[in-house]
Amino acid sequence: MNEADYALYDEVELKKAHPCVHHNKLFQILRLGADVKFVCLGCGAILMVDRDKFNHSIKKVVRHHDAPLVRYSPLD
Length: 76
Ligand SMILES: [Zn+2]
Hints:
By secondary structure, this protein is mostly beta strands. It has one domain (3-63). Helices cover 9% and strands 37% of the residues. A five-stranded antiparallel sheet has the order 4-3-2-1-5, with helices on one face. A hairpin with a 5-residue loop joins strand 3 (35-40) and strand 4. The longest helix is centred in the last third of the chain and has 7 residues, at 51-57. The termini are far apart. Zinc ion (ZN) is lined by residues 18, 20, 22, 24, 40, 42-43, 45.
């Protein structure tokens, strides 16, 4: 997916499910930089990959949010 097509706090569906018990494919973007930080909306795990890898793993934007859906400190 093109970088312009998603934004901070967007809820996105990834091509591969998180290997947690929830087999969840929905994640929320928490930080956009050279690396992308995002959270599994099934188990709450915070993940980080480089931007290029994220662009390839994203399937679609599900919906937009204005704030984190999970307890999250930007300083973490
Ligand atoms: Zn998970």
